[in-house]
Amino acid sequence: MFVVDSTVEVPEHKAEELINIYIKRSRLVDQAEGFISFQLLQKERKPGELTVHLEWESKSAYLKWARSDQFKKIHELERQYPDQELQGIVPKVSKYAVVAQ
């Protein structure tokens, strides 16, 4: 299994807005080959810190997705958020190989 986390920090007053964007997400990734699950995590003591947590069957499945037209489409939409505060946020991406369960 392969895990990808993308963490952003937004002003706390924008956290709910970003959560709602993800609730209404396109779900294109859900159809990708090798995709297992999506979760949006909110840090308990720092509500403006949100992490998109994706689980994949393998690193190669993730890389195939990351090179796909659907991936490009989703990330192009992110750059077009009407809210300027959210539009410019760059996530910190971490990738993990699951080595034990």
UniProtKB/TrEMBL annotation:
Domain ABM: from-to ranges: 2-90
Give the matching Gene3D superfamilies: 3.30.70.100
Q: Where is the signal peptide?
A: none
For this protein, the record's InterPro entries field holds:
ABM_dom, Dimeric_a/b-barrel, Heme-degrading_MO
Superkingdom of origin: Bacteria
What PANTHER family does this protein map onto?
HEME OXYGENASE (STAPHYLOBILIN-PRODUCING) 1, SIGNAL TRANSDUCTION PROTEIN TRAP
Stated name of the protein: ABM domain-containing protein
Q: Which organism is it from?
A: Halobacillus halophilus (strain ATCC 35676 / DSM 2266 / JCM 20832 / KCTC 3685 / LMG 17431 / NBRC 102448 / NCIMB 2269)
